[in-house]
Design a protein that fits this description.
237 residues, alpha/beta, Rossmann fold
Length: 237
Amino acid sequence: MTDKQPKLAELAKEVPTPEAWRVFGIMSELVEATERLVGIHPAVSVFGSARVKPGTPYYELAEKTAQLLSEAGFAVVCGGGPGLMEATNKGAFSGGGMAVGLNIDLPGEQPASRYQHISLRFKHFFTRKAMFAKVATAFVVLPGGYGTLDELFEALTLVQTGKTRQMPVILVNQAYWRGLIDWMRERLAGEGMIGANDLDLLQVFDQPQDVVDAIFAFYAKRGFAPSPAEREVLLNL
């Protein structure tokens, strides 16, 4: 290094750090969402495609699943946008329970569904995903693309590693998910990338009522309220 080349420590001091101030924006998203959602319990977080049109089989599946969850006493939390998110909000709204939308600001505007009792907007995917996990007593995953897959594997990772409480992770529509599950069994489990028992974290159903029944079966002996240890895990999520 020559005398004319600045030392790294000196260079670091000269670089402005506006990024650090953005932390306060992240904090404000988390604080607002926590305050708005603190009483939402028990809740089911539902994921699915924004691209599915009304009147299609997937749309009707999402709407019926959310309606039955709502009628069963669950608050239903989804992404709050169009497609299966709209169908989910609509079903929850008609079921008489709480319909919650956690929307995200994207370059292409994603309008919020009108079927929402609580509507929140996020700039950051990671703060939004944190709130899906904090409120959930189950994850229900409908057909979807990259965003849905991201949310599915985020949920599986949190449950697998104990970073959230143990809870059902349910895929809906066996035909849609069969190829992915076969690949997970053959490659991930078959080559030791996950434990064989990790596949048991997933359940797959076709009928909306089976989704509701599976959630109740999971909590039949333990109740929906988190234990003190689970509450501590959620506080540190």
